[in-house]
Amino acid sequence: MRVSILASGSSGNAILVSSEETHLLVDAGISARRVAAGARAAGVDPDDLAAVVVTHEHSDHVSGLGPVARRFGLPVYATGGTHDGMRGRAGTIPQRVYIEPGREFRIGELSVVPFVTSHDCAEPVGFSIADSGGRLTVATDLGLVSGAVRRHLRDSDCVVLEFNHDEQMLRTGAYPWRLKKRIASNVGHLSNVAAAAEIAALRDAPVADLVLAHLSEENNVPELAVAAASEALSRGGRRDVEVHVAEQRSALGPIEVRAANVAAYEVLREGA
Ligand SMILES: [Zn+2]
Ligand SMILES: [Zn+2]
């Protein structure tokens, strides 16, 4: 499995996940033209896309959804709350598929498990996606990490985790007080510190690649997010994990998702 982050941040999000035969998008908060260009750059013909799975109805995740779904003829998988919430925001969607948190479904070669996230919208989810070679978990747009989210992070070879803001930059920044309060709340976005705490807890997990995602352009800089993640990884004795930063304006990847650490992981588990 390979993953490319086509765009990440509060102005637009889309992630391309590919196994040998199956290609799907997580969210479509960018234009169909950008999706097509990003897919081609990752070696995928956009006409070979199989589906879009949607985390939630905020416009940075669905603004391009209608055009993308229609242009490439894609079914859109989302929870009932998200389907309802995006009416009027995402344009006409040719085929809706209703999914439920905790209930696994398959799209071609990929198995997908949606899980509940804590965010201020109707029925948000993150996704854990696997093929026979590895597992990827995408957890962005969440104010806190629940036990269920943590279990998926711990099971993954590649983790895409929100590092939204630096707490001090958010506090002293230009955003209105009400918005600051929303971002910092339990249904807002993860700070560097909060995300790093989860990373530190992955010390004996199989993770080989960590993608820092949904960085705020206003309240964060990549250097601070990377420093927080790297410090957490080395605190956990994990100098083998590769850290990547997803960007708003350019694509990241493809990153190969492989269960490369399986042997070491089994040894750790047996020893535990
Ligand atoms: Zn978002
Ligand atoms: Zn959101």
Q: How is this structure best described in words?
A:
- The chain is of the alpha/beta class and 272 residues long.
- The protein has one domain (2-271): Metallo-beta-lactamase, Chain A, CATH 3.60.15.10.
- The chain is 31% helix and 26% strand.
- The strands form two sheets. Strands 6-5-4-3-2-1-14 form a seven-stranded mixed β-sheet. The chain has a seven-stranded mixed β-sheet with strand order 7-8-9-10-11-12-13.
- Strand 9 (125-131) and strand 10 (134-139) form a beta hairpin.
- Helix 8 (192-200) runs parallel beside helix 9 (222-235).
- The radius of gyration is 17 Å and the shape is globular.
- It binds zinc ion (2 copies).
- One zinc ion (ZN) binds at residues 10, 13, 58, 60-61, 141, 214.
CATH topology call: Metallo-beta-lactamase, Chain A
What small molecules are bound in this structure?
zinc ion
- What CATH architecture do you see? 4-Layer Sandwich
Percent strand equals: 25-35%
Mean pLDDT: 94
Summary?
This protein has 272 residues and is α/β, with parallel strands linked by helices. The chain contains ten helices and 14 strands.
Summarize the helices and strands and which ones pair or pack.
Elements: E1 2-7, E2 14-18, E3 23-26, H1 32-41, E4 49-53, H2 59-62, H3 65-72, E5 75-79, H4 80-85, E6 95-99, E7 105-107, E8 110-116, E9 125-131, E10 134-139, H5 147-154, E11 158-162, H6 167-172, H7 177-184, H8 192-200, E12 209-213, H9 222-235, E13 242-245, E14 252-256, H10 262-271
The structure holds zinc ion (2 copies).
